[in-house]
Amino acid sequence: MDDSKILVITGKGGAGKTTIATNLALALNRLKHEPILVDGNLHNPHVHVHFGIDDDKMPVNLHDVLTGKESIHKAIYEHESGLKLVPNKHTLKGFDLERSHHIKELKLHNNIVVVDGPSLGYELNNIMKICDDFILIVNPEKSSVHDAMKIKRLAAHNGIFPMGIILNKYFNNKNELSKEEIEKAIELPIIGKVMYDNDVQWALGKNTPLMHLNPNHHISKEIYKIASELPYSVI
Predict the structure, then answer these.
(1) 208 lies in a domain?
(2) Digit-coded pLDDT (tens) for 5-55
(3) Cβ atoms of 230 and 9 closer than 8 Å
């Protein structure tokens, strides 16, 4: 598809990247965008955990693609929601980050390739080389903001500029950084806000992202709103 995009979701470790990536991909699927979700966190993948996929249920995964053993198209699985995904396996052996370009092949058949990206490091630098857009996941505290600023500089070095910030896990209390403080520090707009809610962990315990388990939950509705406002056309 000529208008296809690779959208990377990234931020500080623990900011909630995988939670946002999985639920955002499900929202885009509900919006008929034909997305595919890729677990691009090579050293610490969690997409399969969020969907309850055991290692023996994904005999081919992104690691096999990055070791040159398999085609990326053989690593595609379909969730009961209809969302397609490429999971990854917990292993540190044998992969070649230069093969990350195979992720671009998914653009031929999918409107949006959502990548649950790694945090700062050489993995992210390689993923940035193939992405078209990215969103920063930020918590309302200083270390998360500082990492977001570093990621933004890394992206600029690769000629990529973020779409904005999703403020995640906020409580709305006086000890947090304000929306204005975060936007001023990172010099980007906040395009969505997702409150901390224990139901996110409840859904994880059910091996199903909240968007699929309860699309009417206020967290699901907020992420759906974010997805609906992204500048992508339905093909």
Answers:
(1) yes
(2) 999 999 999 999 999 999 999 999 999 999 999 999 888 899 999 999 988
(3) no
Q: Which domain holds residue 212?
A: 5-229
* Tokens linked to 172: 């709305």
CATH (domain of 38): 3.40.50.300
Task: Note whether residue 234 is domain-resident.
Answer: no
How far is the C-alpha of 166 from the C-alpha of 110, rounded, in Å? 24
Domain contains 16: yes
State the Cα–Cα distance between residues 192 and 205, nearest whole angstrom. Answer: 25
Query: Tokens standing for 43?
Result: 């050293």
Residue with tokens 């309860």: 214
